[in-house]
Design a protein that fits this description.
about 150 residues
Length: about 150
């Protein structure tokens, strides 16, 4: 495809599968083989492969690259989770549904920064994520309805 990208604007390039241009059995030379292909082309007997336009090729290249990046990200996340469970004996995936969301990040910061893991420290840091009004809003509405 390298030659095609270079010569695309200069000449017409046709791509075909070798099984469609097989030469006659016998002694083959490059000269005989090129004459054979030339005759097939003259008589319109070659099935050409589709070569998409340059824009479509670029889009395909970008989509393949994106797929590769997403796959790499998924494999790194799985590796991270596997290291937590096997190496560190920290099993957060049974408590948290996602190890990469807002709740898990402060827990992991506490775990990584301290030598001794304290459950109260982790709980306190997790609760700091939620605003105080958010925590007490259901309780206040319950008390108001109970008092009236």
């Amino acid at each position: 495809m390298l030659y095609f990208n270079v010569l695309e604007n200069e000449i017409n390039v046709y791509l075909t599968h070798p099984k469609y241009v097989k030469a006659i059995k016998g002694k083959k030379t490059d000269k005989k083989y090129s004459n054979w292909i030339c005759n097939l082309y003259k008589h319109d007997l070659i099935k050409f492969s589709f070569i998409p336009p340059k824009e479509i090729r670029e889009l395909r290249k970008i989509s393949r690259y994106r797929y590769k990046l997403v796959s790499m990200r998924s494999s790194e996340r799985n590796r991270y989770q596997n290291c937590l469970t096997t190496v560190s004996n920290i099993v957060l995936n049974s408590v948290l549904s996602n190890l990469f969301d807002k709740t898990a990040s402060p827990i992991m910061k506490v775990v990584l920064s301290s030598n001794v893991i304290d459950d109260d420290k982790i709980l306190f840091n997790t609760l700091l994520l939620f605003q105080v009004s958010t925590l007490f809003l259901p309780l206040s509405s319950f008390l108001k309805s109970a008092l009236t």
